[in-house]
Design goal:
7-stranded antiparallel β-sheet; about 210 residues; alpha+beta; 3-stranded antiparallel β-sheet; 6 helices; 10 strands
């Protein structure tokens, strides 16, 4: 069933795309206002032009703050939306030389937490569940025989929320998930939980069917 759905997505994207391949700058400029209300189309185009001409791509936005285009590649974009939020976009290949768009919005308040969405290159929403299985808190905990110990139970009881930062790579087709909940804790609580946490983040790789 999943293979059939992914084939349908690929065909839907294929027939919805123009003959000439789009790049991320064009897709960003055509982004519906509902997904980036602080920057209208004209300002997005201005940011792209400033970046391409080697100037500081920074403009005041509609929220009385500033937005900065930090990095722009043919298939990747990083926008500092405000002092406390970023937007990442990455074009990812499917079959038949078609592409979809992965968008990661990260808010720092007070530690980083991300939301991930998928779209066609014409900004039609896609079902995230078919393309990514979000990592959970349990993945970041070490396998240990002491899960019934008082120290372990006391430590994980402090992890009362699930905050995860996702980052797309500008250089390859990977997605990195970093567990940020411990950073929300006091230093004393961080020291208690640290022995039970894995040191490495989870790294997903895109395989033209989804992030695995």
């Amino acid at each position: 069933m999943k293979r059939i759905l992914l084939l349908f997505i690929s065909l839907f994207i294929y027939f919805g795309q123009t003959v000439s391949a789009q790049d991320i700058a064009t897709i960003f400029s055509d982004m519906p206002d509902q997904y980036l209300p602080q920057l209208d189309v004209a300002w997005r185009k201005d940011l792209v032009d400033l970046y391409k001409f080697g100037k500081e791509a920074k403009l005041q936005n509609l929220m009385a703050g500033y937005s900065t285009l930090v990095r722009l590649e043919p298939d990747y974009l990083l926008l500092q939306q405000s002092e406390k939020s970023t937007l990442e976009m990455k074009m990812l290949p499917l079959i038949n030389n078609t592409y979809l768009l992965c968008v990661v919005t990260t808010v720092d308040g007070p530690v980083s937490d991300s939301r991930i969405e998928f779209f066609t290159t014409d900004w039609e929403p896609l079902d995230k569940a078919e393309l990514l299985t979000p990592v959970t808190q349990e993945w970041f905990l070490k396998d240990t025989r002491n899960k019934n110990s008082d120290a372990y139970l006391d430590a994980i009881s402090r992890l009362d929320m699930e905050l995860i930062k996702y980052q797309l790579s500008p250089d390859n087709q990977t997605l990195t998930a970093t567990y940020t909940t411990p950073l929300y804790l006091s230093r004393e609580d961080q020291e208690k939980i640290q022995p039970f946490l894995k040191e490495e983040p989870k790294v997903y790789k895109w395989n033209k069917n989804g992030f695995k």
